[in-house]
Amino acid sequence: MLKPPLPLRSLLFLQLPLLGVGLTSKVPMPNGNEDIAADFFLTATPSAALSVSTLPLPEVQCFVFNVEYMNCTWNSSSEPQPTNLTLHYWYKNSNDDRVQECGHYIFSGGITSGCWLQKEEIHLYETFVVQLQDPREPRRQSTQRLKLQNLVIPWAPENLTLRNLSESQLELTWSNRHLDHCLEHLVQYRSDWDRSWTEQLVDHRHSFSLPSVDGQKFYTFRVRSRYNPLCGSTQHWSEWSRLIHWGNNTSK
Length: 252
Fold this sequence. Notes:
mainly beta, Immunoglobulin-like, 2 domains, 4-stranded antiparallel sheet, 18 strands, elongated, Cytokine receptor common subunit gamma, membrane, CRLF2-like_D2, glycoprotein, TSLPR_D1
């Protein structure tokens, strides 16, 4: 004898587990003290659907080049999708505390990745406040406070010159574009008999004397500069100068 068919409502209920819809499963916690109600329909959310507003913005790095211009850049590739982030800035406790948007964006692959500020926009000894923002998610923003005097990178020393002070003594001189009173320098030198550089820190002056040289050796010199503690606390050196040589390069 055939059994009567199940009601339509019962059939739908039996199929729900196959569809993974609307069932609540009790999952024991590791400590066994409580359960978590896991609704399969509501919790199976793809990661791409997570709110963008919860993602942190990349860090902004600013450097002042020879107090002639400043670049503030960020890693645009860290965004989950290409985003033209915007940058606003102002100076804290300044007579000019207007909030301004970057006027000259730097682009990487067609996406904003930095901001260029000209000399007139740089107030070296006032707290620089920079704010990065996602225009699609206005609440997604980050703010940093920077001391620009600690972020100065001077140009490399120029016009390196060597002259003999005596038969065995050399003097190296150089010049810097601007910032002369605020710079300290690092001189490195070695002969063709040396495997490593010898270095000497030089404060304020633009000269260095090597008291004893061997005329049978071939010497190489180079110099780099940075903002000294009187003007800022930067640890960022300039690029090295071009190399300059002295002596007999046929030795060995």
